[in-house]
Amino acid sequence: MENKKRNIIITEEQIKEQIKIVGEKITNDYKDRPIYVLSLLRGSFIFTADLVRAIDGKTQIGFMTTSSYGDAEESTGIVKVENDIPDNIEGLDVLIVDDIMDTGITMDFVIEHVKKLGAKSVKTCTLLDKPSRRKAKLKPDYCCFEIEDLFVVGYGLNYGDYYRNVPYIFNWEN
Q: How far apart are CA 113 and CA 64, in angstroms?
């Protein structure tokens, strides 16, 4: 795949603009109350860093690592917690941030996990939403882009362990 031509789906500039817009919405929704931003590693770390800078308000940040893909292009459907939330989130307003909502299985699992830990409220934010692949009855509360059923890479999204550092989102042309 790496030898094929990159087809840019979302530019770096488009990403920056949408993050600014979503950050303003989150700021409005959480005005006068702190939020705990839970970044799902590894895919969302770049998005989360840019997103929290776009939020004007008190934010606490934590990380959780789950896996359901391995090195595959499709989810296995089984969510595994590799590193759990390091903080006590009981009574907090939690915003779960992920790079992409595809089947929704991982997000559904994490939402339930966060609720069991006693969060006061739980909302979700994704860089990308791929509703055509949804298996769980979910829709992100905040989303930058809705995309077609494409395997995409870049801006935190990986192929194997690579391409997270690319500042735009792309796929490979056939």
A: 11
